Here is the input.
Amino acid sequence: MTAAIRRARSQDAAEVARLYAQLVANSALEVVPQRLAELETSADAALFVADGGDGLAGTVLVALCPDAMFGRRPFAVVENIVVDAGARGHGIGKALLGAVERFCRAADCSKSMLLSAIERADAHAFFERQGYAGDRKRGFVKYRGAFVAPE
Here is the structure.
């Protein structure tokens, strides 16, 4: 299977939502076309998709975070990488992460990092094959429902 990697467009919203539903079962999942339009032209974030011609085969989000540690170099957070279940094993994930790396290199990032659910052992092995070190740091997540109450 071959797929062209490009930035998501507003008309991709339903297909991106379909892919996200393969990643998480969350009734609050909502992909808004206007957000995809904003991401299409953003200098600070990109939502890449793998377009197989008859639908999207995968997607990944990368966002730049300003940092004070290495001059003006940002770091990148990679989030929501998913390859359609029927398209796995054909290099789609590798191609998506390649687009992320080109985006990060162009932004002069110091590093890129990602989180992955603890039970996703196959995904962890894939990330390690792509050069991500899973044994260097430990990730922590706090979801919105656990945030402190507003004052």
